[in-house]
Design goal:
12 strands; alpha/beta; single chain; five-stranded parallel sheet; four-stranded antiparallel sheet
């Protein structure tokens, strides 16, 4: 909300930049390591010399024989499993021994050895990276909520906490259950976690998409047509399409094709992240709307919105006015201290007067003296509400402790705009009808994407590069 918030956000960015730098080094290390792992060799001396060797899938792997079939080297052609059959001569006839070769993984033979034996070290370092990222995200999220630092940075930290926490818990659990993990197996677990998350949450998200359509239809019916009121229908359809695409890839994708696996991974984890963002926004929005400022305010800003045709407040605006009146009355009863009302809003299209003048008349009808009402009649949006109201309060009430009243779903966005103009104030929310909320939270998602588009695209690129390195381990 102030320069303190800006300083905090700078510290948070430094934390994530440090994590990104470590992740980059780790990805280079993984890439170099997996490129080396293109063959597996074992000695057959202890088992005798086989008469012949059979592969169940010659399109997936090939082998070379050295020193008269005493050393066998298998090379991966593509991802997949191959059954290796070694046929030995014997007095009672041929003896067959079968082994399973997981391409890109260890050949499961007692004498087997890969050219790069450090899989578990890489796996452990990656898991430490996940754990470090989870710790930083959770610490940042808790710190933000404790400081009431409502911002998109807080939302992003909450979302990363959810996503990385989920991933870390399940990866550690899977790792300690298995004693034979290779690098390929580790990445396969990561792919599986993303797919599981999307699959498990699909029913909830599909219901949410339907709810978005229903709420938007009600919104259009009650409030009239506008492109803004169509937002839920559009994003609900987009969300449903993402799940349909996920299902089609899961059913029809070629599991041995790297491009298909990359596509599925990027789609799944993009869905996972935006689900976490939505949950975080809802959590932050509810916390912001339910917040009640301490009863020591010198000024209360009431943010304007559209008026009726006759110039009187709409039910939405009346709710904001009544919330501010109720807070000020409670404060006076508890402390004996009155607050000044700053009504903020200019003249919009098809309005016969400014929103501020209409709100001023409403307050005076409720018994508020004219001298305790300050009018801000120039603003046309929430950012200007905050900027112009701040100037009036700085001039008329220097050093005043300030709160603002707006609709419940609008508190979080208003706090963001207050922080943009370095305005230290606290918000309170009035109740409103249920069908406003879905559209409002979707607008916040778009706001988050617009404010942090570089970070979000960077996250998708990291996912793409990260899992490409992992898939290389299955090819070579």
């Amino acid at each position: 909300m102030s320069s303190r918030l800006a300083n905090w956000q700078r510290r948070v960015k430094k934390r994530y930049m440090a994590l990104a730098f470590l992740a980059l080094i780790l990805m280079i290390f993984i890439g170099v390591s997996t490129m080396q792992k293109d063959s597996y060799t074992f000695s057959s001396a202890s088992a005798g010399v086989p008469e012949r060797i059979e592969l169940s899938r010659e399109d997936i792997a090939e082998y070379q024989v050295r020193e008269g079939r005493r050393e066998l080297t298998f090379h991966a052609k593509r991802p997949g499993d191959v059954t290796v059959t070694l046929v030995y001569p014997g007095d009672a006839g041929e003896e067959k021994r079968e082994y399973q070769l997981h391409v890109g993984e260890d050949l499961r033979l007692s004498a087997g050895r890969g050219r790069f034996p450090g899989d578990r070290a890489i796996i452990f370092s990656i898991m430490l990276m996940f754990a470090a990222g989870t710790f930083v995200s959770i610490y940042t999220s808790v710190e933000a909520h404790r400081k009431k630092a409502f911002s998109y940075t807080m939302v992003a930290a909450d979302a990363l906490s959810l996503m990385m926490g989920f991933q870390t818990i399940f990866l550690f659990a899977a790792f300690f259950r298995s004693a034979e993990w290779s690098l390929t197996g580790f990445f396969q677990q990561i792919y599986a976690q993303g797919t599981r998350f999307v699959t498990y949450t699909a029913p909830v998200m599909i219901v949410l998409a339907v709810w978005l359509w229903i709420s938007n239809m009600v919104l259009l019916f009650r409030e009239g047509f506008s492109w803004r009121n169509m937002l839920g229908i559009g994003l609900g359809a987009l969300w449903a399409s993402a799940y349909i695409l996920h299902g089609l890839i899961a059913v029809f994708a070629d599991r041995t094709n790297v491009l298909w696996m990359i596509a599925q991974t990027v789609i799944d984890y993009t869905i996972v992240y935006f689900e976490c963002v939505l949950f975080s926004l809802v959590l932050s929005g509810i916390r912001a709307a339910c917040h009640v400022p301490p009863p020591d305010r010198d000024a209360i800003i009431i943010l304007g919105c559209q008026l009726r045709r006759n110039g009187t407040p709409t039910p939405l605006l009346q709710g904001r006015l009544d919330r501010a009146l109720a807070f000020e009355k409670d404060q006076h009863e508890r402390t004996g201290h009155h607050a000044v009302f700053v009504v903020s809003g200019g003249k919009g299209k098809n309005e016969i007067c400014t929103e501020a003048s209409s709100m001023g008349r409403y307050l005076m009808e409720k018994g508020v003296p004219k001298e305790r009402i300050l009018l801000e009649e120039q603003s046309t949006n929430t950012l200007q509400n905050m900027e112009y109201s701040k100037k009036i309060i700085s001039r008329e009430l220097p050093g005043a402790k300030t709160a603002f009243s707006t609709t419940g779903y609008h508190v979080f966005r208003s706090l963001l705009w207050a922080s943009r103009c370095d305005f230290d104030c606290e918000g309170m929310g009035s109740r409103t009808k249920w069908y406003y909320y879905p559209n409002a939270y979707l607008r916040e998602i778009l706001g988050l994407v617009a404010a942090h588009h570089a970070v979000l695209w960077g996250l998708i690129v990291v996912i793409l590069v990260y899992f490409t390195f992992g898939l290389l381990a299955q090819i070579h």
